[in-house]
Amino acid sequence: MKLTFLGTGTSTGVPQMRCKCPVCRSADPHDGRLRCSALLQSEAGAPGILIDCGPDFREQMLRIGSPDLACALITHTHYDHVGGIDDLRPYAHHCPGAHFPVYCRADVAADLRARIPYSFAEHPYPGVPQFDLRTIAEGNTFTILPGANFRPLEVEVLGVIHGRLPILGFRTGSFAYITDASELPAPTIERLRGLDILVINALRAEPHPSHQNLTQALNVIKETAPRRAFLTHMSHDIGLHARVCAALPDGVTLAYDGLTVDF
Question: Which residues contact 186 (CB under 8 A, 6 or more apart)?
Fold first, then answer.
């Protein structure tokens, strides 16, 4: 499998507008972070599985050559995770039946219908992106078929708490992806054990009401003991990439935009 981090930043991105902090002024490209998103490929040449589609989606995909996509998995309805959904139209137009598969909670499906009603009209005008919204929930397992020549991929849906909002994480094989968590229920912690790769959010060093801070993320990593862990959804307050990485435990690192991981 191959994982590509399309974006590793929080809702404001990094650099943050009107900020002159050392991270926002850093010349290190690892300190520049678009809004949080990732791309998973089950095997070489397989169409990608997009995890979240934020407002930087177009730029993120152009950076990596606009590869084929099989579907999108959406963790929750906040703008920094769905704001680029209209930009999926080139992919929707090349899907069988011109309906691009999107796996999401029922509340996300309702929100998408409200945000882009023209995509769900009875008689849509030519050129609009059209979506096949496939509702999923915590505890579900579903199968993605990337294409006729590629093996199916089974995905397990994990429950995550984001402040007061229930959202989703995903596990497939020995890989799991968690973002925007402030709390992980006990059943989800159990499903994060025995992983090769864990991606998990760590907003900053200081506590936050709706996101894990660095200490909380490291505690989850220590408890679940993945072979490797990558931190994502970071604000400028996390600190300089090189400095933070040097202080992290073995096997744990800050992800960065464009990072690819084969496993």
Answer: none
Residue in 4, 9, 27 with CA at minimum distance from that of residue 203 = 9
Q: Which residue has the tokens 């490291």?
A: 218
User: Which residues share a beta bridge with 162?
Assistant: 165
What does the block give as tokens for 54?
């934020």
Q: In angstroms, rounded to a whole number, what is the distance separating the alpha carbons of residues 35 and 41? A: 20
Measure the CA–CA gap between 44 and 46, rounded to whole angstroms. 6
Is the torsion defined by CA of 11, 207, 209, 180 positive or negative?
positive
What would the pLDDT profile of 210-262 be if each residue is shown by its tens digit?
999 999 999 999 999 999 999 999 999 999 999 999 999 999 999 999 999 99
pTM of the entire structure?
Answer: 0.97
Sequence-ordered alpha helix ranges (H) in 64-143: 79-82, 89-92, 106-115
On the 0-12 / 13-18 / 19+ scale of CB atoms within 10 A, 226 is buried
Cβ neighbours of residue 15 closer than 8 Å, sequence gap 6 or more: 23, 24, 25, 32, 236
Give the rounded distance of the alpha carbon of 158 from its chain centre: 13
Retrieve residue 104's tokens.
Answer: 């999401």
Q: Which residues contact 12 (CB under 8 A, 6 or more apart)?
A: 235, 236
Phi, psi of 123 (to 5 degrees): -130, 80
Question: Contact 244/236 with Cβ under 8 angstroms?
Answer: no
